[in-house]
Amino acid sequence: MKPATAIAALTLSCLLGACETVEYRIVGTQMIKNDRGHVIGHTDVLRDVKTGEEFEYVTNYVPRLDAKGEIVGYEEPEPPRGTILRGLDGRRVGVRYSDLRSRGTNPGSRGVTVIVKP
After folding, report:
1. What is the rounded CA–CA span in Å between residue 30 and residue 75?
2. Other beta carbons less than 10 A from residue 71's beta carbon
3. Cα(10)–Cα(6) distance, rounded to whole angstroms?
């Protein structure tokens, strides 16, 4: 096999392999609670549409503390947008957007936070 033919065949196989995508569907979601009853994460059961293979994807929340150091809620990371703010019962109460433009003037900034009170 000539080198030019081998390179063309390798390039074609790479291009065809790159076009293949895997599609997952969420089958179920289970909340994870700690001993205090706080929702500290969730488990998603995902299924591959083509093969039917199922697996679990676990998301753990980061505790959100007040000035006294008490847990007032949790943050669910949502890259690249920011984080979802959740109450102790797991309900969505707000969001924090990652704004990279303000990092130049305020390097310690974690972004703009929007909280909606019920």
Report:
1. 17
2. 14
3. 6
